[in-house]
Specification:
It holds the Pfam family BPD_transp_1. One of its GO terms (cellular component) is plasma membrane. The protein has 11 helices and no strands. The two termini are about 15 Å apart. The relative contact order is 0.11.
Amino acid sequence: MAAASSSWRQLAIGLVLPAVVVALWQTVAVMGWVNPQVLPSPLAVAEKWVAYLLPLQPYDAAAGSWLHWAVSGELITDSISSLYRVVVGFLIGGGLALPLGLAMGMSNRVYDWFNVLVQMVRPIPPIAYIPLSMLWFGLGNPPAVFLIALGAFFPVLMNTIAGVRQVDGIYIRAARNLGASGFTMFTRVILPAAVPYILSGVRIGIGTAFIVVIVAEMVAVNNGLGFRILEAREYFWSDKIIAGMITIGLIGLAIDVAMNKLNNHLLRWHRGLEN
């Protein structure tokens, strides 16, 4: 009960600043200090967001179920398309980065082989690969997924390496003195100790993947939140641009909250909260 009360209090505090920003924004719009075509009012953005959410066509029972019609709005379909690309790209990038990071963290030989290449490629932003990705994969989901995988790869990789290399030597020596095998050492000592770093990398990687998908959708696909924002720009629909941006922010917030709760649940032992 106390935890729930604390969560609601934190939410209320967190909403104060956004409410102030929206109030100031509405004041500026009402006073006419800014061209509404350049910066529409929050109410105009809210109206466009609702229109963006609702289905484009009236319900027709002959065309399918009511549920299928209810989720046929552009906002829902674009959000699902973007999330699909984020999930697939992150699973590919994170799935490749995790074993490589574990190997580089545990073995100096593997680290020496890969470190120079990793440090050369890591500073290159995924956006720089857009021309090559379109040449290699054409248009559609493949280039977008490739860019997202790149964006998610390095945060997971570098945090995994750091997590393995930061394992306290006392734990390793104690396990060796107790006769632990290499497999037991990895599964019972090194991997659990590295989990906090790995989860931090996952959290950063998902955030990076969501940033990259918006950029990728502006150049390689014909749906998704990024594509819709670019389309709105071409028609000078500022309200729809901001509605799309707010949607991105809300989805990003939901993902971050979910990841934070997952981290807290998985790391209860690390924080000494186990019963």
